[in-house]
Amino acid sequence: MTERRVLLSDGTEVPAIGQGTWYLGEHRDSMAREQEALRAGIESGMTLIDTAEMYGNGKAELLIGRTMEGMDRSRLFLVSKVYPHNAGRKQIFKSCMDSLKRMGTDYLDLYLLHWRGGIPLSETVACMEQLKKEGKIRRWGVSNFDTDDMEELWEVPGGKNCAVNQVLYHMGSRGIEYDLLPWMRDHKVTLMAYCPLAQAGELRRGLYESQTLNAVAQAHKATVSQILLAFAVRDGKTIAIPRSGRKEHTLENGAAAGVVLTEEELRVIEREFPGPTRKTYLDIV
Fold it and tell me: CA angle, corner 64, sides to 247 and 43, nearest 5?
């Protein structure tokens, strides 16, 4: 697999294509297959693994923990997310420890606020900074934050330490390109794209049936899924986290790191799936 890396604001390099785990670990009969898929991805260089305490009420984190057994922890970049109602002083430290226990590790590389809730951002940020001081997390970020949320975060003491904003982004859902993504680039906040394969219902918008995308895929001896991933990470500053519970699909996703779209191909794609011309609010799944 061709190596494609993304540089975080603190200089850490991570794979441009990692592995998502939403819906994984929830069924006993598929667990062995899902572990095989995660291991294959790790061995092929997809060492960034994203999860959340919400996913299967911790079952995805348990799956990752089992998969990691016997592996060199330092090779991995583990991301988890805390529920908004757990993101305050009363609960976040327990939530973080529970995630660490389920994953069988003593630190997270990145800890995200899953979405905004009723707890003040100032309190959540202070707690995140405390977790960093204690060595429980290496860095923190947010998820499902729009531009006004990010601007508010930036006014909070310590808020500028936010490393990542994880939002839905794919070729059929490009609204963030209007104002959120430029804001993030200006403030050195890395984009992590969830649902990069357009798993989200109507947002698929005929992507897999598109003659244009099928022609581009054929030119690269690739699949449409690989073209979608190549598009998502085309700027060299975006991390995509496709989910797969099957080894063959995981390896297909990872191989997309070797697909580089030409300027002409990007122009053709732009004509059929244009970027936004006005503010659109976040698509959230």
Answer: 45
